[in-house]
Design goal:
The chain is mainly beta. It folds into two domains: about 325 residues, no CATH class; about 160 residues, Immunoglobulin-like (Sandwich), CATH 2.60.40. About 5% of the residues lie in helices and about 45% in strands. Strand 11 and strand 12 form a beta hairpin. The longest helix is centred in the first third of the chain and has 9 residues. The chain starts with a strand and ends with a strand.
């Protein structure tokens, strides 16, 4: 197993902590990180646990000591949490060749589709890339102020929003700092706060809460006494924590709020250092609540605010993802929302099938060898048109090979496309326009009846190395009454 450091997908901050100004996004840096491949050999869980016993060695020998980001920090300050190595956490997994992460849905800032709306009063555009509010001026809004990221992905055929509510905060600085959120990515930065308590709620576009079967987030560049404390109910949703064997982080259960994952020293890491990141896999989750903070106990509260402690995540992870089953929906001219069944006015009305297939963000070692979706349209129907779109609604039909024998259709991603990083981290939608073939005899559901029914489902077949995945979608149904 080759472990490749995770690359930042949503991050635009030039570092986790800054001492001057507010950083703008840096496309060149993101591209450089995407092109950087640093190979590290993995070890087994058993040897990783042995490594945990020498955590001091990890900190002293694995981590380069560089200049401190804040001149008010005393070198080698220890965080005030009493804990132990993250390698000893009960749900920690050190990935090997057989490790699979279930579920491929991950929230994503989609350029051109995701929009950002502040919730509550006091928000300002603090830069071209950030909204923020002065927390000291918004004390009465705790629990009612936040940010809404609209359209951060498609889950089971429906658009997902991310609603972030800021529940509480504890300010360290004597200066009134901002709590900030990104306009062009999903991320937050806090200016000299002990912690900011926030809830990330997953919702459908109509505001209805959605429960995700699986989703994961890789939190990166956890350094310089930074920490995340997950609330107890959220901890119960953490099915696994994936880390490299040389991870320098600790965890602690000493906070009554929940479980804390933290950097135990003030040493600095880079965005792509695998020892300073961890992947949380959540199961059956509709929201996550956590405190994002930093131990300022050895700092001067009147010190420079800086740009803030930035928290972001990436969708890349240190193991391949087991693909999800496709989701099938059916719609017509007046039943245009995603449905598992619809009713036609008559046999002259055409209708549409949509097949949704999520493809996770992957490193090249986990790229697909083949990707084929098959759909067997009822032989009593005419297939009028087929098209394929990516998550940005761009037509990518020409990047697939489409074949059919009668109404049995096959959609296969071209080999060159599977080797392109742009194939990954999106949701594909295959659109199939159909109508009733009135030249063929239609068979009613019941003998001598007047109701006709057309069922449809799809399958996905994905090959990754020596692994082959075959999964079937849900079934959708269309009904129509015979008109005399």
């Amino acid at each position: 197993m080759i472990f490749i450091p995770l690359v930042i997908a949503n991050a635009q901050e030039t570092s986790h902590s800054e001492t001057s100004g507010i950083s703008e996004s840096s496309t060149s840096k993101s591209e450089a990180l995407d092109n950087k491949v640093e190979k590290k050999s993995s070890v087994s869980n058993e040897s990783a646990k042995n490594t945990a016993e020498s955590q001091e060695s990890i900190l002293e020998n694995k981590v380069p000591v560089t200049q401190l980001k804040d001149t008010n920090v005393s070198k080698n300050t220890r965080v005030s949490f009493a804990g132990e190595s993250i390698l000893n956490y009960q749900n920690t997994v050190i990935p090997d060749d057989d490790t699979e992460i279930p579920g491929s849905f991950v929230i994503k800032f989609i350029d051109g589709k995701t929009s950002v709306e502040p919730i509550g009063e006091g928000w300002q555009s603090v830069s071209s890339t950030e909204y923020g509010f002065v927390a000291a001026e918004c004390e009465t809004q705790k629990g009612n102020i936040g940010i809404l990221y609209k359209n951060v992905g498609i889950y089971e055929g429906r658009t997902i929003n991310l609603k972030i509510t800021i529940n509480d905060w504890s300010q360290f600085s004597t200066e009134n700092g901002y709590i900030k959120y990104r306009k062009n990515s999903i991320g937050t930065a806090t200016q000299k706060f002990n912690w900011v308590d926030q809830t990330w709620q997953f919702e459908y576009s109509d505001g209805q809460t959605v429960e995700l079967k699986h989703t994961y987030m890789t939190w990166y560049d956890i350094d310089q006494l930074q920490f995340m404390t997950f609330e107890s109910n959220t901890v119960n949703s953490i099915a696994a924590v994936y880390v490299s064997a040389n991870n320098w982080m600790n965890y602690s259960n000493n906070d009554s709020f929940g479980t804390t994952f933290y950097a135990p020293t003030d040493e600095k890491s880079n965005d792509d250092d695998d020892f300073a990141m961890y992947t949380t896999l959540f199961s059956n989750v509709s929201s996550i609540r956590f405190k994002w903070g930093k131990d300022y106990s050895n700092q001067n509260p009147s010190g420079t605010l800086g740009a803030g402690e930035f928290l972001g995540f990436t969708a890349k992870k240190p193991a391949r993802t087991a693909p999800d089953a496709p989701t099938k929906t059916v719609s017509d001219k007046d039943e245009f929302n995603e449905h598992e069944r619809n009713n036609l006015y008559n046999m002259n009305e055409s209708f549409k099938y949509d097949i949704y297939q999520s493809v996770p963000d992957e490193y090249s070692e986990f790229y697909y060898d083949s990707f084929t979706i098959k759909d067997n349209v009822d032989e009593k129907l005419n297939v009028e048109n087929v098209k394929i779109f990516n998550g940005n609604d761009q037509d990518v039909t020409d990047k697939f090979s489409i074949s059919n024998i009668g109404n049995e259709y096959s959609f296969s991603a071209n080999e060159f496309f599977l080797k392109d990083k742009n194939f990954y981290y999106t949701t594909y939608r295959i659109e199939i326009q159909v109508s009733v073939n009135k030249n063929l005899e239609q068979i009613p559901i019941e003998e001598n009846g007047s109701t006709y029914k057309y069922d449809n489902s799809s399958t996905i077949n994905i090959a990754i190395g020596n692994k082959n995945y075959l999964k079937e979608s849900n079934t959708v149904s269309t009904y129509v009454e015979r008109q005399n």
